[in-house]
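Supplementary Text 2. Reproducibility record for the structural model of the 147-residue chain.

All settings were left at their defaults, and a single model was retained for analysis rather than an ensemble. We include the record here because the model underlies the residue-level annotations in Supplementary Table 4.
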Amino acid sequence: MRIPRRILLLTDFEISEMQWEALMIPINLAFFYKSSASDKMIAMYPSPAGATESLLSLESWEEIRANNPALQTMEPDVEALLVNRVGDTAEYFIVPMDECYRLVGLIRMHWKGLSGGTEVWREIQQFFAQLHARSTAAGNHPEVAHA
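Retained model, structure tokens:
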């Protein structure tokens, strides 16, 4: 399967704090994708050790998916919802999977000590700035075309 190249910034993504907490993601960076092999949603978060799978509450995910029809346009295995809740403003993107693993690689490469150090946080900020520059702003609509 060919990996889509679209990068969508979901400008009106809807998720409550309670829904986010129900996903049980220990940090404020994560990506979610549909695995066709297991026929379920997979939640991953980057760590100094690499991508780590989280135990995803399907009830929470289904509620989030229902509130955000753009998620229904994601291609299984090759596109993901990338969530950045690190800064003051949360950001939500639909991206090719390779972008998620590029972020994981940046974190693995630049992480120092217990908190990561200033270099890793600068790299993460730069990664999302570049993603913004390459993204198309999209509302929460399922008719968003694939690129």
